[in-house]
Amino acid sequence: MIENYLGFPDGTSGADLADRARQQAVKFGAELVMMSEGVKAHFDNDHIHVRLADGESLTAKSNICATGVEYRRLGVADEARYLGRGLFYGAGAAEAPYCSNEHVFVVGAGNSAGQAVMHFANYASRVTMLVRGSQLSATLSQYLVERIEARDNVDVIYDTEVSALHGASAHQSPVLQGLTLCNRKDGSEHRQSASRLFVCIGGEPNTDWAMDTSIVRDASNYLVTGPDLLTHGQPPAGWPLKRQPFYLETSVPGSFAAGDVRHGSIKRVASAVGEGAMAVSFVHRYLQEHH
Ligand SMILES: Cc1cc2nc3c(=O)[nH]c(=O)nc-3n(C[C@H](O)[C@H](O)[C@H](O)COP(=O)(O)OP(=O)(O)OC[C@H]3O[C@@H](n4cnc5c(N)ncnc54)[C@H](O)[C@@H]3O)c2cc1C
Questions:
Q1: Measured in angstroms, how far is the CA atom of residue 69 from the centroid of ligand 1?
Q2: Domain 36-69+207-289: which topology?
Q3: What is the pLDDT of residues 94-122, one digit of tens each?
Q4: What CATH class has 73-199?
Q5: Percent of the chain with pLDDT over 90
């Protein structure tokens, strides 16, 4: 559910938004290749050559990668059943205002989980952070550790993971009602009632296709673009042009990235859409340079 995209005061589902975008793109004359996965790419003679999973290939002078992020799942049964019905992936900024007077559970120990906990604490009556490790300081910035410890309505359960989800019976519409928590040290389990669980255990950008190219990816495999490619004002080794990379351009001229897949992106629909539009104008500039 996308709650806060401009122009949709009642929210809209990701699937509906994507389908509306598809219809609009077709109306404007774009060709869409559906149900097709890009698996590998290489750059040759100022062109990108993409191999698709079905064995077909595509060649282009310029490209925009907008393949997003695959959010990590808990890996327990029934996750799909409760998704959006009490179980959410990500920091849930949009859901927080609906959590007033509720007990919210957050899985994760990184900064995004820590920020989510502090955000929910402003709305929920109680926030419980579920952490696999034995301390927060290894994975969380010190300022967040201090804020979490100081907050009265926040508690942290260490050495714990969610081993099962529970909810309404098969005949009623599924809604999350409880969790089984497993202690990783002694294997003991206990059941806990819960109606809202936010899973903030990170994600993996879909950039495997770029693995064997000279495109620069960061330590988490996001595509690095524009000013983030510069070191002391200099583009990376191998950058062949006199000008510096455009704002959304990767380390290969004419190859752009937009949205969640980009290093430092905001992870919001509005910013992904805006970057997509910007990237198209950079493609035109690039093609003017290389006509
Ligand atoms: C549960 C949830 C709730 C959210 N709520 C909000 C919200 O309320 N407001 C908000 O602004 N944002 C929200 N977001 C974030 C928002 O969905 C993303 O920021 C946005 O969708 C990013 O757009 P994108 O185009 O970069 O990537 P995506 O929307 O992730 O699109 C990437 C597309 O590329 C496809 N793809 C991936 N790899 C390949 C490949 N190799 N070949 C071909 N295709 C490929 C994927 O299948 C997908 O269709 C939410 C995200 C989640 C997970």
A1: 7
A2: FAD/NAD(P)-binding domain (3.50.50)
A3: 678 888 989 999 999 998 899 899 999 99
A4: alpha beta
A5: 81
**Does the fold of domain 73-199 match that of domain 36-69+207-289?**
yes
Q: Which residues line ligand 1 (CB under 6 A)?
A: 2-5, 14, 37-38, 66-68, 71, 88-90, 94, 206, 209, 259-261, 267-270, 272
- Please report, for the chain, the start and end positions of each structural domain, with discontinuous segments joined by +: 1-32, 36-69+207-289, 73-199
| Residue with CA closest to ligand 1 atom 14 | 268
- Average pLDDT, rounded, for the chain: 93
How many whole angstroms from 186 Cα to the centroid of ligand 1? Answer: 38
Distance in angstroms (rounded) separating the CA atoms of residues 152 and 126: 9
pTM: predicted TM-score of the whole model, two decimal places: 0.79
Paired tokens of 92: 């849930």
Residue nearest to atom 43 of ligand 1 (CA): 37
Using 50 as the pLDDT threshold, list the residues of the chain that sit under it.
none
Mapped to the 3 state alphabet, what secondary structure does 201-238 carry? CCEEECCHHHCCCCCCECCCCCECCHHHHCECCECCCC
